[in-house]
Amino acid sequence: MTAVSYDLAALYAEHRDAMYKVARSVLRKAGRPDLADDAVQDAIESIMAKPPEKIDNPEAFLVLVVKRKAIDLAKAPAVARRADYEEEDHLVDGFEDAAIDRLDTLKRNALTREELAKLPEMEEQVIRQVIMLERRAVEVADELGRSQAWVSKTKKTGMLRLNERLRKGRVA
User: Distance between CA 12 and CA 23 in Å, rounded?
Assistant: First the structure.
């Protein structure tokens, strides 16, 4: 099995806001939100030193590494203002809840894309065009050389099939 390589710069650029928000949130409780840059830099350096073999969710991975680095910084004797710092103390403004909700949405989106790809080709194409790209059924029908009624029926059949697949694939 070959090692997977990641464009860390692209991942950083895409998720930098989430990483900085998490670091500031954790470090704010220690009275040092100004150290958020250090936490993010330390996290990126540690990832560069030992790149992961596989990342299922890059945003979750990066946020988790930054969170751990920020907690380490907050617990450092030179930074910590109180000895009883708990991981739960970093919750500020519900940011973590929003990040968790976003990660759940990303996971659901990935499952939806995976199941969509398993549909018959025409159903997948119609759903992508009409639902995901928000194109009018008339336009899609013209492109495919079909009637608008056919596009509507194919969309409905595909959505029913997709919903059933998602129900079966849902983790309890």
Answer: 14
Phi, psi of 3 (to 5 degrees): -70, 140
Within a 13 Å sphere around the CA of 71, how many CA atoms are in the beta-carbon half?
14
Domain boundaries, the chain: 8-95, 117-169
CA 135/CA 154 separation, integer angstroms: 15
We find that the CATH architecture of domain 117-169 is Orthogonal Bundle (1.10)
Q: What's the predicted TM-score (pTM) here?
A: 0.44
Which region, left, alpha or beta, applies to residue 39 given φ > 0 means left and ψ of -120 to 50 means alpha?
Answer: alpha
Stretch (H or E) spanning 17: helix 8-29
pLDDT digits (tens, 9 = 90+) for 122-155: 999 999 888 888 889 999 999 999 999 999 999 9
